[in-house]
Amino acid sequence: MTMKLDSNTIATLGDALYDAWRNAKQIAPLTEQHPDMTIEDAYGVQMHTINRRIGDGERTVGKKIGITAKAVMQMLNVDQPDFGHLMSAMTPGESETLDSKRFCQPRGEGEIAFILKKDLAGPGISGPEVLAATECVMPAFEIVDSRVNDWKIKIQDTVADNASAAAFVMGDHAISPRGVDLATCGMVLEKNGEIIGTGAGAATLGNPVNAVAWLANKLGELGIVLKAGEVILSGSLSIMFPINAGDVLRMSLGGVGSVSCRFS
After folding, report:
1. Which residues does residue 65 pair with via DSSP β-bridges, in sequence order?
2. What is the pLDDT of residue 25?
3. Residue 51 phi/psi, 5° resolution?
4. Considering the domain boundaries, does residue 1 fall inside one?
5. Buried b / exposed e across 173-207, counting CB within 10 Å, b at 16+?
6. Any domain includes 173
């Protein structure tokens, strides 16, 4: 691992992002202050913020995979996805609306969520092992939000900011991953009753199973195991779109089900 920042600097940056998250405020890009920051440094900052949230009483309930589309990789000039942690306070209760005031500049993504029934410990995890370890898949919305001014992010900025994770909403139905072709299943995104995007499972590394395998192997390098019961958001299947107070979102996933959420 290549790290350029010392532990005190990593803690200071983590504290700044933690405060920005708690107060729904934006801060300057970390890479402006520290242009030599590496991706490994950024994951160190990420873990500092996560540990502070755990200290507040939250718990980790899963992981999210980001930057799975080639266009986004090109935009950020990287050749790999990233990951962040899903925390217990990120998901609303049943029928609960999401308060738009808790976010800085939220955007939405439609995704396929995996719920694990067995641990996955990389390296060396392949697609068949992911399927064997998966209890079910569900449609899900991920609400991403950047605590960095105006989404002016480099890969290090979003990784440090917990891969821009903010909230997630699970769907109304779950099926076996063997009951649907996850690469070809189609998705339709709606906002306030209008279709704003379509996509398919292949949008995320060719198949969302590939994304989960990548995550298990990446975490394996860091000594982290994906645990049974965890939720894995496998990556966006279409556009990332802005969200405002009053918006009603719906996503349907062919052969799987649908998910809806509302912002107050």
Report:
1. 83
2. 96
3. -65, -35
4. no
5. ebeebeebebeebebbbbbeeeeebebbbbbbbeb
6. yes
Distance (Å, whole) CA 60 – CA 218:
18
CA distance 243 to 194: 14
- CA dihedral 114→117→121→127, nearest 10 degrees, is -50
Tally the domains of the chain: 1
Residue 204 belongs to domain with CATH number: 3.90.850.10
Find out whether 108 and 143 touch, Cβ atoms under 8 Å.
yes
Which residue matches tokens 């790290």?
A: 3
Beta bridge partners of 120: 226
Contact 211, 234 (CB under 8 A): yes
CA distances in angstroms from 32 to 47, 103, 149, listed in the order given: 20, 23, 11
Asked, for residue 258, whether it belongs to a domain, the answer is: yes
pLDDT in tens, 211-229: 999 999 999 998 999 999 9
Ranges of the chain with pLDDT below 70? 1, 71, 73, 75, 93-95
Is the distance from CB of 65 to CB of 215 less than 8 angstroms? yes
Residue 168, beta-bridge partner list? 142
Cα gap 30→26, rounded to integer Å: 11
Q: Which of 75, 71, 13, 88 lies closest to 44, judged by CA?
A: 13
SS3 state of residue 24: coil
Residue at 213: amino acid letter: A
Which stretches does DSSP call E strand in 145-247? 165-170, 186-191, 194-200, 231-236, 241-242
Residue with token string 């894995």:
232
Backbone angles phi, psi at 95, to 5 degrees: 65, 5
Question: Does 71 fall in a domain?
Answer: yes
Q: Residue 243: give the domain boundaries.
A: 59-262
